[in-house]
Design goal:
This protein has four domains: 10-292, Rossmann fold; 304-368, no CATH class; 381-456, no CATH class; 474-651. The chain is of the alpha+beta class. The two termini are 25 Å apart. Strand 23 (381-382), helix 6 (392-397) and strand 24 form a beta-alpha-beta unit. It is 16% helix and 26% strand. Strands 1, 2, 3, 4, 5, 11, 13 and 16 form an eight-stranded mixed sheet that branches. A six-stranded antiparallel β-barrel has the order 17-18-21-20-19-22.
């Protein structure tokens, strides 16, 4: 399989900041309704609308944006629209290129289905073409040895290279995936944006033609992909249950909305960070010489939304949620807050305030996200209905299913596996979806209760930390982290010399990871390290009992952890949390937020950050000292800034 041609799982890309005279043109495609294929999607027209809004917000004139969508309703006025058919897409791409001159940028965004088809021309070196499926795409045609009306990666690469040769920058943006990856979704809520070979009618006896692959692109370009080559890209309904969006498009749009002065690599990192909190372990990727270049245009840089007639002009698409609290201001920047109100109802683009507005209130700023919702499961699904195993006791032990599930219980191998909301079983290899297995003396009901309590705590804590820290693209965290890996050599008692950690290579059981944490800010930081396992446990790593975890400016500490023997494959996370403190202040140790049964006995203390986070987990903001439910409510709902560094750890399966 080739590495990221123009389309591996391409998904949003925009462009480099250029001289004032340079222009940006965009072709935005959203394919929801397919004319021939039985493969309709709900999200792509909404994605196209959202992307058009983001591009306009970043300074692209309406006249330079073409939207080809199967449902063009709700688009900003003045935008050129057309069908999302193959011919219209090709014409729009050619037109954008012909209207551009050296220094200009052409943006191509596609939301819809992708697929893979045998290469019959030989330019893939004997592999497969990655294809996008326009609205008029059909099945395999033996006469042409191709998927009818599909757009091949070869065609797009030829189009892009023609622009690059002329000195025109190219940005690709595709929320789709080319490969079904061999995993099947079982009972999940999301919909994967891929059509497999069988659904396209591609005969199994079609053999790819051997030949020489096309040379790589040469010029100034950047491509952002909605997922890795062995993952699928998903769309999901928002909390309103009506509006569907591509997960990548939604998170990328939220990142780009206000971003100023950030590079594409910073935007990608922030988008990936947001997606980690989402329903699927779908991790975007990117490549191209412009990754380290600044994003074109300017975001608003404003963290406040206009307020009019009791409504906030921001909603689910902007990251707001029912129960969030916003401070009200008279001005779009600075100024003293006039009041704090709760969002009573939140739709895709607007929110209703609960309470009377001060007369001069015109802007709202998010100051507190709602506590994470209770853990919700989907209805249990059997992975193999013909396995002959009896799951009656497990089914009886599982709680009732609910809407918008966090996890999908999958009955497999005599146990219950907990897949993500996408319903994909064992995405990182056999056993990588955690199993509920009864320990000695446990009944199925006790095992389910134990595992779900652990999952609820871990997932709620991860969400609470994300709500507390937010994300900064260019300001930088006050703590830097470098990681070395020491590979195990013959069990957990011996390890090789340290080498820089490469996340793409993953780790194995008994490997050691050593973190070097440095305070690069101008204030002392209390630092805590937690580890989030694939089975949802939050393990305390550092500080260990009685160790001082305060780093003065410029000070470093080295923290080690070892992957437990017998660990199964999965995607895990290292969390580094830093709270700025005065040198004489009490110590802040956030390891007590770990899974309760894993946390050592500690004095509860009284530091505000820990109490605040614990309040988010328990849905209770009561000040313990005063027992006053309003004591922690007000204009400063976060007691101190909290910075978070997250490092994904891919734990690979051991040898058979």
């Amino acid at each position: 399989m080739k590495r990221h041609p123009f389309f591996l799982c391409l998904t949003l890309a925009l462009t480099l900041a250029s001289p004032v005279v340079a222009e940006v043109r965009a072709v935005v495609v959203g394919v929801g309704d397919y004319k021939v294929l039985d493969a309709d999607l709900k999200g792509p027209p909404n994605d196209a609308r959202l992307m058009a809004e983001v591009l306009i917000a970043r300074g692209i004139p309406v006249a330079d944006i073409t939207v080809l969508s199967t449902d063009p309703t709700g688009l900003p006025p003045g935008i050129a629209v057309g069908p999302a058919d193959r011919s219209a897409i090709i014409v729009a791409l050619d037109s954008a290129g012909q209207s551009s001159v050296p220094g200009d940028t052409v943006v191509f965004y596609f939301s819809g289905h992708g697929a893979q088809a045998p290469d019959t021309s030989g330019d893939e070196g004997g592999g497969y073409d990655e294809i996008l499926l326009p609205a008029d795409a059909a099945g395999w045609k033996g006469a042409t040895q191709s998927v009818e009306n599909a757009i091949l990666d070869d065609e797009l690469q030829t189009w892009a290279q023609g622009l690059l040769y002329r000195g025109i920058k190219v940005v690709g943006l595709i929320d789709a995936c080319h490969s079904a990856t061999g995993f099947r979704a079982i009972g999940g809520e999301g919909v994967a944006r891929v059509v497999d070979e069988a659904a396209l009618g591609i005969p199994q006896d079609v053999v790819p033609v051997a030949g020489s692959p096309q040379p790589p692109l040469s010029g100034e370009f950047v491509f952002l992909y909605s997922s890795q080559s062995d993952q699928r890209s998903f769309e999901y309904p928002l909390a309103d249950g009506v509006t569907w969006q591509g997960e990548f498009t939604l998170r990328l749009a939220q990142t780009l909305r206000d971003t100023t002065g950030a590079s594409w690599s910073q935007v990608l990192a922030a988008t990936r960070e947001a997606m980690v909190q989402g329903p699927a372990r779908q991790m975007p990727d990117g490549e191209g010489p412009l990754l380290d270049a600044a994003v074109f245009g300017e975001g608003s840089g404003i963290t406040r939304w206009p307020v009019a007639a009791g409504m906030v002009e921001g909603g689910l698409l902007q990251g707001l949620a029912k129960g969030a609290e916003v401070a009200l201001f008279a001005n779009p920047a600075q100024g003293e807050p006039l009041a704090v109100l709760t969002l009573a109802e939140v739709s895709a683009r607007t929110s209703t305030l609960d309470g009377a507005l001060p007369a001069t209130a015109a802007w709202a700023e998010l100051v507190s996200t709602p506590p994470p919702a209770p853990l919700t499961l989907a209805a249990p699904v059997r992975a193999d209905p013909g396995d002959g195993l009896d799951y009656a006791a497990w089914i009886a032990a599982l709680p009732p299913s609910g809407d918008h599930p966090d996890l999908v219980p999958i009955l497999t191998g005599g146990a219950v596996a907990l897949a993500g909301a996408d319903g994909v079983l064992d995405p990182e290899g056999p056993g990588s979806s955690p199993r509920i297995v009864a320990e000695a003396g446990e009944s199925p009901a006790q095992a389910v209760a134990r595992m779900l309590e652990q999952a609820a705590h871990g997932l709620r804590l991860r969400e609470a930390l994300a709500g507390a820290t937010g994300r900064s693209l260019t300001g930088g965290a006050p703590i830097t982290m470098s990681i070395d890996r020491r590979m195990a050599t013959g069990g957990c008692d011996a390890a090789a010399s340290p080498v820089p950690y490469d996340p793409a290579l993953g780790v194995a059981a008994c490997d050691q990871l050593w973190l070097t944490l440095t305070n690069t800010g101008g204030k002392s930081q209390d630092v805590s390290v937690l580890y989030f396992t694939a089975s949802f446990a939050v393990q305390p790593i550092w500080p260990t009992q009685n160790l001082v975890n305060r780093l003065a400016p410029g000070e470093s500490v080295r923290v080690g952890l070892q992957i437990e023997e017998g660990s199964t494959a999965g995607l895990e996370e290292i969390w580094v949390l830093a709270v700025p403190v005065d040198p004489a202040a009490p110590r802040v140790d956030l390891t007590r937020l770990a899974t309760p049964q894993l946390t050592r006995a500690v004095d509860r203390g009284s530091d505000a950050m820990t109490l605040w986070l614990e309040g988010r987990l328990t849905d209770n903001l009561t000040d313990e000292a005063t027992d006053d439910e309003t004591a922690m409510r007000g204009f400063t709902l976060k007691p101190a800034p909290l910075a978070m560094l997250r490092q994904m750890v891919l734990l690979k399966p051991g040898p058979d």
